[in-house]
Amino acid sequence: MKAFLKGFGIVVALTIAGMILATVAPKIGVWVGLVFLVIPLVAVFKPLPQLHLGHRAFSASVAFFVGLLTTAASYGLVSDTQRLADLRATDPAAYLAELEDRDQTKWLSELEDLAPERYAIEAAKVAEAEAARKAEVEAADAARKAEAEAAAAARAEEVAATRQAEQAAKVASYIEQLDREIASIPGVQASKYTGDVATINTGLLLIGAWALLYEEGNALDLNDEARQKRQKFRQLLVRKQMELLPIMRDAYGPAMRQQLWEADGSARTIGAGYRTVEFVSAAFARNANIKQIHLEIRENLMMLRFTRAQYKWIKQASEFSYYDMDVPKDSDIVKWERDGGYRVLD
């Protein structure tokens, strides 16, 4: 089966090659075809190779078949070419009429040589047809482009409408939240956030949440009424911060004193506005302990807006270590970042 398929493929390939040669170069095709026709005759007198077809007789038959087809096709084309050449010389009009049906490109070329006036007319028709085709293509392209632009504009309008609706929903939700906070802020009592370190930290989280709510308004398209409401919220928030933070700082000393009691330590807040916190512990005889403790609580101290933290190893020590801290005012609305960094919100 494999040998048959191989032989069949060779036969087909030789046949196709012969037809191509007959079409491209008919005169050469005649000679090549004759060569293939001669091969079987030579095989009568001298053994020939098998041509990879498995049998010398079969190889000779294939050569004869391919040669016959190639010679016939090539001769036919040569004869037709010669006939057209004779017709061109004897009857140009008939030659052009027959050529017009066969090959438009060659017909126009011959028409230019044999009938210049008619060629000018036909060339004008071709140019007009080409211009019409080009105009049709351009019109189709323009229509597609206009359609695409219209679709893009429709999508853009749809996206814009969706975004506008989402923005309106966000603004409505934001205003509702402002209304709730404006109503609740005056009732917030400092005493709720002074019991211990955990409740003091809860108070700090509440102030931070208010600041984030205020900041959210920067990203929204608020109308005049909403901006006035946001400004009212700001005023209430500033007043509440100025009320809460000093009380929470004052409570921080006793709250830390509770935590340090088991370690024989103490803490207190002193100074105007309770801006200084002082820690006392025997562990603070070592600078490494001071640094470690301060790094652990520094962010918390800054959020309470202490300006100084002092560390003594005994209460009566005249020399002690301290850290000054750059913190915002109690009236500043602040967004806190990592490591005690912050940004004051306008």
Q: Topology, please?
A:
Layout (H helix, E strand, L loop, with lengths): L1 H23 L1 H20 L10 H35 L1 H11 L1 H11 L1 H69 L12 H20 L7 H37 L5 E5 L5 E5 L6 H18 L3 E5 L8 E4 L9 E3 L5 E3 L2
Parallel strand pairs: 2-3
Antiparallel strand pairs: 1-2, 3-4, 5-6
Care to describe what's here?
It contains 9 helices and 6 strands, in the order ααααααααββαββββ. The chain is an alpha+beta fold and 346 residues long. Helix 1 (2-24) packs parallel to helix 3 (56-90) and helix 6 crosses helix 8 (224-260). The protein is elongated.
Could you provide a short overview of the structure?
With 346 residues, the chain is α+β, with helices and mostly antiparallel strands.
List the main descriptive attributes of the protein structure presented here.
346 residues; alpha+beta; four-stranded mixed sheet; two-stranded antiparallel ribbon; 9 helices; 7% strand; elongated
Question: How many whole angstroms does the radius of gyration measure?
Answer: 51 Å
Shape: elongated
Strand ordering within the main sheet:
1-2-3-4
* Average pLDDT rating: 80
How far apart the termini lie comes to 90 Å
Helix and strand sequence: HHHHHHHHEEHEEEE
Number of helices: 9
Strand % is 5-15%
List the uncertain runs: none
Number of strands: 6
